[in-house]
Amino acid sequence: MKRSASAASALAVIVCLSVAVAGAAAKTKAKHPHPPKQPAGPPPVYVFPAPGSHFASPATQITFRGLPVGGLGAITVTGSASGVHPGTVQGDSDGDGGSFLPSTPFSPGETVTVSTSLNLKGSRNGVYQFQVATPAAPVPFEHRPAAPRVKGDVWFFRSRPDLDPAAVTVTRPDPNAVGDIFVAPQIGPFQQGPEIVGPGGGLIWFDPLPKDDAATDFRVQTYQGRPVLTWWQGDETAGVGIGQDIIMNRAYQVIRTISAGNGLSADLHEFDLTPNGTALITAEDPVYVDATSVGASSTEVVLDSVTQEIDIPTGLVLFQWDSLDHVPLTASYTAPLNLPKKKGKPVVPNSSWDPYDYFHVNSVGLDRDGNLVISARNTWAVYKVNHSSGAVMWTLGGKASSFKLGPGASFAFQHDVRVRGAGDQLLTMFDDGAGPPYVHSQSRALELRLDLKQRMATIVAQRVHTPPLLSSYEGDDQELPDADEFVGWGQEPYFSQYNAAGQLVFDARFVDANISYRAYRFVWNGTPTTPPALAASAHGRKMTVWASWNGATGVHYWRVLGGPSPSALRPVATTAKRGFETILHARATAYVQVVALGAKGRPLDRSGVIAVGG
User: Fold this and answer.
1) What is the CATH number of the domain that holds 285?
2) CB 254 within 8 A of CB 246
3) For the chain, how long is the longest CA-to-CA vector?
4) Phi-psi category of 216—alpha, beta or left, where left has phi over 0 and alpha has psi -120 to 50?
5) What's the pLDDT band for 424 if we cut at 50, 70, 90?
6) What is the pLDDT of residue 338?
7) pLDDT digits (tens, 9 = 90+) for 114-170
8) What is the rounded distance in angstroms from the CA atom of residue 207 to the CA atom of residue 210?
9) pLDDT per position as a tens digit, 179-233
10) What's the CA gap between 72 and 50, in Å, rounded?
11) pTM for the whole thing?
12) Which of 35, 276, 312, 319 is buried most, with the most CB atoms less than 10 Å from its CB?
């Protein structure tokens, strides 16, 4: 949308009027010791890609935040190679901004000039530039090998033969435990997907995903004032993901599918719903970068770790932060692979090697002041980032820490960094401590106190496992409502709960050597729209009935209806629910149906009618 000559003239008039008003204000101040307060100037507008950024996607939108979309005025967007770009403007759902959506993508490597009449932060006279990255080929998909088979590693159910979830065993039960366990086994051995497990270790709900899909960050969050299930789903390889984020209601119906913006794909590492009705997500963008500073090629394929805030109703990008614009390659503790390149021509990535993952973002969350806290596995550092401008406010850990780390406070390859308490004075994280190299002898859940004046970080508490566990990747530390801590051990198959005194009060694990990116405990109530399931088998005059209802949390009893025909059924057995699948025995009948009953015997739903097999 090119600004007209008349619009440019109007802008010049406005500038002249502004100068005249400023002169009149100076005279007024001379006459009056306490002059009346002058009207404020135009509000600052923040824009993404940010002024001076170098790694915008060719498919980027241009985000304006800080005023209603009707106040954006004329916007001219010109690529140094692609020329003037027509486009449309769409408003954000909160009424505080909007985006220019170019009709055609930009050219790789070109410089884009954006001209407006706005008070753009970081620009002069409403005009600024950003550079477009040169994209590399996507990270090749490589399926993780399945967990080695061991006895009892998978749950099998007669009533649901389509479900083969990874089995869990509780090694240290807690009779006072409140809430269910939320995991997402990533390496089969037959199926993988989001899985809810009861306090005693029995299955409550499992959603098998399509072959080669995985789920991560499965948990309960709040959306539009109601509890929902959320997770990331897609292909994962080389420690990153290409997929989408899912929101599901209490009836196990998908109500939102959220994609990354600007031509990127959502990564597996974060899907955090904010109180503002937005989503914080991550993406990994392979681009060509001059990596000679770390001994690699001048056309090295590097992963740009991207943080985005997505406006859920519109799908527009509200904020974007690119690691390559703010953190140098030299900050990494991970070395590039130094693969040979043809002179002047970058090699297209293939399945035999990975891009240089120098940063590896693995958590993003809001601080209490509205700014962001971002964790980077491969720089061993945490970054506080201004939510408006994207500027790094401080760095904790790594090679350029803003804080001195007290005894034992150093961490490495950390995950799931969260702000606790008032301000950003308390942080928790899962400190893997193993990459390789192996920095610690065991992984731990770590709580640090930050002295913002003295710039000192000290240990408040740490939680370790017995026997010791050392995870090379993944893991989390969840603070529970009663001040207990629930710890997922990532690469290791364990999940544990510690009380406020640091004592282990609950411990469980996958039966096999499975992994879950994070593990959580939440209170959850679900009522599926799908009916209960059953299977039945007759043995002479007796029959056995298997009843289940995947995801139903309100079932207390099961009742079997049997009879000589589907239309002539009567109660033949009732028993209390026992686990995911309840077994009932009764006199044999030709046809059966099961009814799920609530706490007071009220029917909740019923299965279809089936013929009893021999």
Assistant:
1) 2.120.10.30
2) yes
3) 109
4) beta
5) low
6) 54
7) 999 999 999 989 999 999 999 999 887 777 899 999 999 999 999 999 999 999 999
8) 10
9) 999 999 999 999 999 999 999 999 999 999 998 899 999 999 999 999 999 999 9
10) 17
11) 0.90
12) 319
- Distance between CA atoms of 422 and 402, rounded to whole angstroms? 20
Give the count of beta carbons closer than 10 Å to the beta carbon of residue 580: 23
Q: Quick one: 45 and 187 in the same domain? A: no
Q: Specify whether 372 is located in the same domain as 441.
A: yes
Structure tokens at 9: 């003239």
29 and 86 in a single domain? The answer is yes
221, 498 in Cβ contact below 8 A?
Answer: no
Residue 421 to residue 439: CA distance in whole angstroms: 28
Q: Are 356 and 296 in contact (CB under 8 A)?
A: yes
Range of the domain at 564: 533-611
> What CATH code is carried by the domain that includes residue 580?
2.60.40.10
Identity of the residue numbered 381: A
Compute the average pLDDT of residues 554-568: 98
The span from the CA of 139 to the CA of 147, in Å, is: 23
For the record, the structure tokens of 521 come out as 């405990």
Same-domain check for residues 100 and 183: no
Does residue 257 sit in the same domain as residue 392?
Answer: yes
Name the one residue in this structure whose structure tokens are 């009220």.
Answer: 602
Residue 142 lies in a domain: no
Report the distance separating Cα 545 and Cα 49, nearest Å: 61
Same domain, 517 and 572: no
Closest CA to 269 of 256, 253, 283, 290: 283
Of 465, 497, 466, the closest CA to residue 484 belongs to: 497
